[in-house]
Amino acid sequence: MTDNLAYQEEPWEEKLNGQIFLMSPRPSVNHNRAAGNIYHIFRNYLKGKPCEAFGGGVDVFITEEDTVIPDAMIICSKDIIKPDGIHGTPDLIVEALSPSTAKNDRGYKKDLYERTGVKEYWIADPMMRSIEAYILSDGKYTLDGFYGIFPDFPGITEQERQESKKEIPVSLYDNFRIPLDEIFYNLF
């Protein structure tokens, strides 16, 4: 391995509890747009600040048995950033749901991120245009909020649509709030 890796030729895969999961099929356009929007919002806000944003495609070696590839993340400890990926615990991780990853994103990965000290974990659902935000408190995740735009989707009432929170705070910064219409901009 060289220190000047421009790209990695290996297929995308995650290792969860020692078991390899190939990252296929490739994410949908809506998945990529939502994850990309989140990354760009993080990146723009963090310019000139001590924390750094990363988008999908960066390996996170979070434990010896677990290597994940989040859709977006924020790292505040620069010493865990290495040429081949992140070696340690990100401060905030975002996973955008897709049918093939939803079970792990809501199950094993959520437990893994809680256990390893990820301060904030977002589960973004491009189809529902919603985000579940979990904040680590005393070593356990608590649901900080459920934020959603909710397009015309069966089972969501107009009242629920109107009462849902339309702006999500980033707990790492007191004044960092993101309108959901920016996160879910240009989705089908």
Helix/strand layout:
Elements: E1 13-16, E2 19-22, H1 29-46, E3 52-55, E4 60-63, E5 66-68, E6 72-75, E7 81-82, E8 85-87, E9 92-96, H2 102-106, H3 108-116, E10 120-125, E11 130-137, E12 140-148, H4 158-163, E13 167-169, E14 177-179, H5 180-183
Parallel strand pairs: 4-8, 9-10
Antiparallel strand pairs: 1-2, 3-6, 4-5, 6-9, 7-8, 10-11, 11-12, 13-14
What does this structure look like?
- The protein is α+β, with helices and mostly antiparallel strands and 188 residues long.
- 22% of the residues lie in helices and 33% in strands.
- The chain is built from five helices and 14 strands.
- It has helices spanning 29-46, 102-106, 108-116, 158-163, 180-183; strands at 13-16, 19-22, 52-55, 60-63, 66-68, 72-75, 81-82, 85-87, 92-96, 120-125, 130-137, 140-148, 167-169, 177-179.
- The strands form four sheets. It has a six-stranded mixed β-sheet with strand order 3-6-9-10-11-12.
- A hairpin with a 2-residue loop joins strand 4 (60-63) and strand 5 (66-68).
- Residues 1-9 have low confidence and may be disordered.
Kindly, what is the distance between the CA atoms of the first and last residues, rounded to a whole number of angstroms? 40 Å
List the secondary-structure elements in sequence, H or E.
EEHEEEEEEEHHEEEHEEH
Number of helices: 5
Query: Could you say which overall geometry the principal axes of the C-alpha atoms support?
Result: globular
Structural class of the helices, strands and pairings? alpha+beta
> What's the arrangement of strands in the largest beta sheet?
3-6-9-10-11-12
Helical content (DSSP H or I, runs of 4+): 10-25%
User: Taking Cα atoms only, what radius of gyration do you get, to the nearest Å?
Assistant: 16 Å
How many E-type strands? 14
Question: Mean pLDDT, nearest integer?
Answer: 90
Low-confidence stretches: 1-9
Largest sheet: 6 strands, mixed
Strand-residue proportion: 25-35%
